[in-house]
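re: ur question from yesterday

yeah so i grabbed the chain u mentioned. its 482 aa long if i counted rite. heres the sequnce exactly as i have it in my notes:
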Amino acid sequence: MLRIIKNNYRYLLILLLFADITFSFIQHFHLPLEGDMACIIVPSDGYKQLMSDPLGLSALKGDIYPGTNRFFAHWTMATYYKITPFICQWVINPIDSIYLSNTIAKTGIQILIILLLSFYITRTWKVFSKDFLISAALITPLFQTFGFNAYIGIIDKSITYTFFYALPLTFLMIFFIPFYYASSQNRNINLNKWVITLLIPFIIFLSLNGPLIPAVVLIVCPLILLFRFRNNYLISNQRNRWRRIIESINGIDRIEIGFFVLFTLTSLYSIYVGRFNAENFNNIVPLVERYKLLINGIYIQFTHSAGSILLVLAIVINTTVIWFQKPTAETKRISKTLQWIIVLSLIYTILLPLGGYRAYRPYIIRWDSYMPVNLCLFYYYGLTSLYLINNIKPKLKLAYITGIAMFLLVFTIADKTNYYSSTCEKESLKVIANSPEKLVLINSDCSIMAWGKTTNPDDSKFNTQYLQYIGVLKDEKLYYQK
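ran it thru and got these C-alpha cells back, copy pasting raw so excuse formatting
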C-alpha cells in the first residue's frame, strides 16, 4: 500500500486538492447574501460621490463621505456583479446566478491565494512539481468556510469582505512576486519596460483598494528598504559618513527603491484621504480604550479557537524541530523569515488601533483585520512543514507526516457545512419575484440581502434595484418583514 502511494503521490495530492476545492465551491454556493453588496453595486446614494471621485480628490478639500480611499475595491466589485450574473444565466436562473457569481469569485480568489502561497514557499511556478503540490496540500485545508473561519478565515462568508480584504491582499502578493523572487535568488530585479509601465497604475489601484493595503505597505516597503540600506552600510568600506550613506542607498536595486518609495507615498496619500471616510465617525472610541480592547482581542484571537491554537502549536513544533537540525543555508533562511514575520506582525498589531473602531469589530482584531498576519502564519507553517517533510530524519519522517495528516484532518472535519443556510433567502427572493404587489410582505425571519431582518421597506430599495438590473424582478418593488 505504501509503495502504491509513494509511486502515485502526485495523483493523490491532485485528487485531494481537487476534492477540497470542490467542497469549498459547494460551501460558498450555499452561503446567503449580505447587506452591503447591493449598496456597493448599484450604488447607494452614500457611495455616489466616491464613484465619481476615484482618487479621493474631494477629501483634499475637506469633504467627508463614505469610502474615500476605497474606490477600486468598490469599482472591482460593482463591475464584477454587473457582468458575471448575466454570464451565469446562460446555465442557471437569475436568482441562483447571484449565488453562483459569489461562488466563482470566492473559489477563484481562494485558488489564487493557494497558488501564490505555494509559490512563495517553493519559489517555483512548476505547479505539478512535488514541492509545489505538497505546499498546496499543506495550506488548502486551512481555508475554512465555516469551522475556524471566525478566527483564521481568509475567504469571508460575506462577498463584500472578500472583495475588500482577501482580493486586495491577493493583488498585493502578486505585486511582490518579482521582488521576492529576485531576493530569494540573490540577484537584481529584471523587469521589462512593459511590466514597469503596468506596475505604476497597479500601485495606484492597490493603494486605493480596501482598508488593509496602505497599512501593510507602509510597514513592509520602508522596512525592506531600511534593511537593504543597513546591510549595504555595514559592508561599505567608505570612511566618510556621507559617502557611505550615498553608497549604501545606491547599492539598493533602483527598481526596488523606485517602486517601494512610490508605493509608500501613494499609501501615505491613501491613509490621509481615508481620514475623511464618513464611516470613521460612526463610532468614536478614545485611542487608549482601543488599545485596551486590542489586548482582549489578542487574547481572544489566540485562545478561543482550536484553529488558532493548533496553527500556532504546529509552527512552534516545526520551529523547534528545525532548531535542532544541522544548520544549513535553508534553515538560516527559515530563521530569518521567522524574524521578519515576528517583527512585521508585532508592528502591524500595535498599529491596528490607529485604524479606528468599528462596532462590528469590538476587540479591534478580527479575522478580516488580522488577515495579513494569518496569511504570514499560513506561509511560515507551509514553509517549515515542507522543509521537514523533505529533510527530517528517515526514521522520523513517517511519524511527522502522520502528525501533519492528523493536523489537517482536524481542520477538514471542523469545516462543517450548513447546506440550508441560504434556502430561506432564496425562497423569499422567489416570493418577491413572483408577487404582483409593489410592496411585498415576506413572512420569514431570515435575512434577505441584509445583515438582519428588513423591517423598513425603504431599506430594500437598492436590493430590488439590483435584482431588477439582473432580471430577477421585471419592475420596481420593495419588500419588508415583520
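noticed a couple things. The beta strands are 439-442, 478-481. also The chain has 21 helices and two strands.
anyway ttyl
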